[in-house]
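retry 2 of 3: previous attempt timed out while embedding S-adenosylmethionine. Reduced batch size to 1 and resubmitted. Inputs unchanged:
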Amino acid sequence: MQLPVQLLTALETTKGFDRKSFEAVHASNEQVTSIRINPLKASTTSPNPQILKSPNHPVPWSQYGFYLETRPSFTFDPLFHAGCYYVQEASSMFLEQALKQTLDLSQSLKVLDLCAAPGGKSTHIQSLISKDSLLVSNEVIRSRTNILKDNIIKWGCDNVMVTHNDPADFAKMSGYFDVIVIDAPCSGSGLFRRDQAAIEEWSLANVQLCSQRQQRILADVWPALKENGILIYSTCSYSKEEDEEIVNWLLQDLSIVNCPLPIDASWGIVESGGGYRFWPDKVKGEGLFLACFRKTGEERTTAIKIKNKPEQATQSESVIIDKWVKSEGLRFIKHKQTVYGWPEKLADDFSFLLNQLRVAYSGTIIGELLRDKLVPDHSLAMSTKITDNIQRIALDYDRAIQYLQRKELLPGNMTKGWQLVTYEGQILGWVNVLSNRINNYYPKELRILKDK
Ligand code: SAM
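retry 2 succeeded.
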């Protein structure tokens, strides 16, 4: 692994950089694997997911993060597909400290995750905010928006809106958000240890380009942050141009103060120029820089005006929907035949955002209403709002994998109709049992393509 000499030279004056041990850790081939538990589906104390065999090694700065001793095949773990956990690099989980130490997370907050795909930070934020809080999870690149949407659906929550907008589109929503998280696109040096291609793509010119783009993104979205709101900025680059120099630029050009985050000395994190550096030879994780700020300048707050109210399900349609969903606290919205479940308390905000942004997904898709029947959606199967009354078929490991490969399941003695399939008590998706066969409704685009 030949690290770029220009980078190593530039880092010589960076706090915490120790060339010898930095090069050694890159040469060592050591791989760190970590996951973050989904508290909506799994517990940090039970043996499920099974990959968390005792003794567990918690990530010290995250309530839900764990290191794994070896890297299993996540593709062939049904609980991964059930949304019990997210595979996430440990340093990134430090976002939790920034949120916990600067905010009262029991309050109802409006949070924007501006550069969100594939959804690591968004699923983490969702686990930390209250159920009456709203998360707008945005991604500017279309193909990446789809991956983000799939991960949000798998997480099983209903207080998230996935949007597909340019950062500048948020400027009109002045003072709307309490928190904005910008996990900025960067030159990627922090991932060198696990991604050889990132080394080949690295150049000083790209560092400059990224730095300018980061400033543009920050300046574009800035009006959308409320007065006293929190801005969290992070990159996975070691270059000062994308880290400390961005902090300096923010402090000089905007009405903002830096928020120091108390850190435990044993964590190995290095405080540098108003932010926190993760060096892979000092922490068990990859390279990361994170800084946190509070907006001090005044910001006019946008009044929530709803131009076009979305159509709601009728009384008789609600009776049909009620058989499938724990309806309490939900409002049912219709777009053509598709029914969405929105948290009642966030419905005005959801309607407002629908008028303002390009929305790719919101709440939970319940299903399609066809005459007096509901065809349930995969999102409903993944959601914690699915009713307990629906029949479930428990699959063993091999059959669970066959189901996730979208293979045919052989009929046994089963009641006809829509049923949920489960593995180790966790829902994987829908089947429709007919008299002579079982139709597998696992979404085609999510199926496991490989054979074990
Ligand atoms: N936060 C994500 C997570 O934890 O899974 C990772 C985000 S990644 C570091 C940066 C994201 O910014 C990418 O998804 C990329 O598509 C997006 N991006 C690229 N150019 C952008 C731009 N000009 N404005 C906003 N986002 C951009």
